[in-house]
Amino acid sequence: MTQNLKDIKAKLSSKYYEFLNVFDQAQLNKLFFHCFYDHKIELISDSTLSCCQAYQIFSVKLLKVKKYLNENLSKKFITFSQTLYSFLILFILKANEDL
Questions:
Q1: Phi, psi dihedrals of residue 11, rounded to the nearest 5°
Q2: Which is more confidently placed, 81 or 32?
Q3: Among 18, 31, 60, 71, which residue has the fewest nearby CB atoms (within 10 Å)?
């Protein structure tokens, strides 16, 4: 056990000793085992690719999101972006059961 691990073990609660290897710098520097996969994807001829949502959003929620975005865009709290990233929007019910 290295001196670094001994120092960490002295500070760590005994119930976490089994996870001591997480702090071992020598282990962190090793490349994790990995495999390369080559899967063949067979496309159906004469078909077109389409895009769809992972789940259908309720129209009430969608309208609330659009209203929120439009309000904050007009106030310049947020700006329009064309990045390829997507963001998760969580809906939380208020005490009066409104979104």
A1: -90, -20
A2: 81
A3: 31
